């Protein structure tokens, strides 16, 4: 008789915590030798053009670069974690965090990207942050590049469009792995690597003035350079610190066909392949065949060097990290998608509700995604972002009653538990933005995700005081019970 025990709870060493990114959190954009990053100019550059996310022209970029002030520009202030990190990590510890995902600002370490020596003052900041985590037994989970690079790399090399950027990245990662050997056990190379086919934030390359085929050519070529850089970092990490684990990070949007009509099902399948291409390369270690046809039909020719494939297969990641906020719908008919319009991609699902920003909330989709990933990849999975952006208000009693956030997170955690019962291997859960921070897509403060409220408005005004929301106590209880008391 075949009978195996069904796991019925989260593993004992499950990594509960929260996730952040340097450019949305730290502030101190010009302190202790730090250079400007692409993330810190993108919104200003876009505003000049009245473009949507990721559309940056050389002219608008120049204006943003020349403007060295941080007046009325919240993104460059973050929430001033640079000066508040002790207080903030203490609050995470109070909730019982086992893990804290953060990113390192590359421009703190190499201000222009191509110096010969790293900036010691920048490294010292992260030394202190990691020491603070250690005090409370919190495991740092480090993203090496979260939607940013030193702006100097864009100005000199056009970001990831240039193969030269690989060597700059390799130098940066070598500094990190050596310095934090035995200190950081979990790394991730690029945040939401699939964003590199969406534009500037991912690639650091200016392409908005190119025509569509040329734009996609440049984005996929840039992405190829990131694949190589990531694979080299994986190998380097394993050599320098054999105890460390290094993963990739994908923005995952579960895709459903709009109808059971096979043409819609096929369209959704292709959409899914285009989404999973990134993890196919980074987890399986090779370019999948379906991309050959896609590249040929879209006039994309990648320049590869003779040993690129070998580098990619030698740099397979140890685990798959991903963000999950929503699902989407694919139709064979573009007009159907456009008419219903969900977020930037795909159509709306009539069975689901949406956040105030139109992101369709789909906890069961997380279970589906976890099962698909496990079936396809057989490597440990890590939900490194998930959460609800909302317009929180401080109530007359001085508190923030965010039951909607508790409900969102509870439903997703329930589905993770179901997926564990399905047999998937899940390492942890770091919800997005445990402390309110600047939004990546709007560059504003008012889209809040946190358990901790930060008194700052969209213009960057406020006391920066930290307040515990209702969800703070709830998450504390969740962690203390290892996900049993939801
Ligand atoms: C992910 C990014 C994060 C983050 C989150 C929420 O795509 O990795 O940086 O900000 O989305 O998005 P937003 O801030 O736009 O609400």
From TrEMBL:
GO terms for molecular function: beta-glucosidase activity. GO terms for biological process: carbohydrate catabolic process. The active site is at 385 (nucleophile). Keywords: Glycosidase, Hydrolase. Belongs to the glycosyl hydrolase 1 family. NCBIfam families: PRK09593.1. This is Pbg10 protein. It comes from Liquorilactobacillus aquaticus DSM 21051.
């Amino acid at each position: 008789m075949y009978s195996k025990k069904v796991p019925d709870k989260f593993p004992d060493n499950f990594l509960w915590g929260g996730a952040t990114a340097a450019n949305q959190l730290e502030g101190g954009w010009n302190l202790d030798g730090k250079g400007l990053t692409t993330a810190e100019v993108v919104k200003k550059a876009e505003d000049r053009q009245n473009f949507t996310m990721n559309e940056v022209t050389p002219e608008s970029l120049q204006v943003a670069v020349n403007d060295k002030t941080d007046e009325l520009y919240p993104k460059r202030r973050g929430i001033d974690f640079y000066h508040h990190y002790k207080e903030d990590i203490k609050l995470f510890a109070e909730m019982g965090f086992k893990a804290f995902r953060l990113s390192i600002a590359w421009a703190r370490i190499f201000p222009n990207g191509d110096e010969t020596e790293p900036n010691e003052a920048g490294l010292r900041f992260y030394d202190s942050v990691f020491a603070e985590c250690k005090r409370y037994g919190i495991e740092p989970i480090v993203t090496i590049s979260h939607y940013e690079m030193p702006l100097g790399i864009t100005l000199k090399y056009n970001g990831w469009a240039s193969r030269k950027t690989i060597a700059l990245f390799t130098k940066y990662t070598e500094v990190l792995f050596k310095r934090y050997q035995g200190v950081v056990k979990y790394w991730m190379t690029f945040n939401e690597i699939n964003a590199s086919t969406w534009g500037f934030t991912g690639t650091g390359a200016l392409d908005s003035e190119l025509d569509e085929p040329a734009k996609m050519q440049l984005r996929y070529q840039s992405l190829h350079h990131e694949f190589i850089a990531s694979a080299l970092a994986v190998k380097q990490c394993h050599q320098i610190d054999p105890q460390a684990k290094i993963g990739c990070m994908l923005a995952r949007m579960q895709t459903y066909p709009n109808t059971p009509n096979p043409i819609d099902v096929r369209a959704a399948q292709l959409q899914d392949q285009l989404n999973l291409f990134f993890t196919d390369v980074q987890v399986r270690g090779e370019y999948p065949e379906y991309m050959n046809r896609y590249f040929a039909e879209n006039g994309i020719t990648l320049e590869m060097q003779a040993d690129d494939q070998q580098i990619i297969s030698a740099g397979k990641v140890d685990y798959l990290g991903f963000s999950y906020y929503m699902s989407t719908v694919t139709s064979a008919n573009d007009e159907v998608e456009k008419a219903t319009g969900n977020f930037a991609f795909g159509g709306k699902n009539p069975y689901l509700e949406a956040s105030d920003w139109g992101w369709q909330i789909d906890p069961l989709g997380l279970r589906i995604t976890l099962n698909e990933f496990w079936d396809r990849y057989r490597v440990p999975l890590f939900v490194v972002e998930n959460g609800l952006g909302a317009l929180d208000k401080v109530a007359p009693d001085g508190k923030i009653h965010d039951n909607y956030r508790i409900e969102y997170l509870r439903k997703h955690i329930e589905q993770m538990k179901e997926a564990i019962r399905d047999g998937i291997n899940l390492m942890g859960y770091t919800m997005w933005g445990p402390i309110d921070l600047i939004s990546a897509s709007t560059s504003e403060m008012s889209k809040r995700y946190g358990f901790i409220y930060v008194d700052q408005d969209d213009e960057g005004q406020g006391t920066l005081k930290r307040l515990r929301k209702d969800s703070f106590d709830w998450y504390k209880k969740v962690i203390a019970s290892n996900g049993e008391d939801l």
